[in-house]
Amino acid sequence: MKKEKLLEEIFDSAEADDLRRASLEAGLGAMQRKRRRRMAVRGVATICAAGLMAAGLHFLERNEAEQHVSSITNAARPDLEIINADQLIAMFPNRPVALIGPEGKQKLVFLDETSEPGHPEN
């Protein structure tokens, strides 16, 4: 009988209610923080994976395009020599020239000409 009375006093008191409420709120807060952290890690991992895939596809497409251009050029004219930008510029030692545009789509521009070849000035 003494045990039952002691248990009733412990579990029926206002302090026990406050303790239960505080314990439940602390547990709920911990679970919410854990869930937010897990969701943030998952989001960052998804973004990183998407970025890596995009970068991989970009380099794959670029490599395939370069190989395609090279194979077309070599197949059409086996006697054709492919040169790089430095070799091209070196072919015009006494003229100011520049390569304009993104790599692979550059145009050779002669800086000492005032008009384009085949287009006389007016």
Write the layout of secondary structure elements.
Layout (H helix, E strand, L loop, with lengths): L1 H11 L1 H63 L8 H6 L6 E4 L6 E4 L12
Antiparallel strand pairs: 1-2
What is the total tally of β strands?
2
SS element count, helices: 3
- Proportion in β-strands: 5-15%
* Average residue-wise pLDDT: 79
| C-alpha-based Rg, rounded | 37 Å
Instruction: Tell me the count of domains.
Output: 2
Main sheet: which strands, in order across?
1-2
Structural class, from helix and strand content?
mainly alpha
**H/E series:** HHHEE
Shape field: rod-shaped
Write a short abstract of this structure:
This protein is 66% helix and 7% strand. The protein has 122 residues and is mostly helical.
Descriptive notes:
The protein is mostly helical and 122 residues long. It is built from 3 helices and 2 strands; from the N terminus they run αααββ. It has a two-stranded antiparallel sheet with strand order 1-2. β1 (97-100) and β2 form a beta hairpin. The mean pLDDT is 79.
Features:
122 residues, mainly alpha, two-stranded antiparallel ribbon, 3 helices, 66% helix, rod-shaped
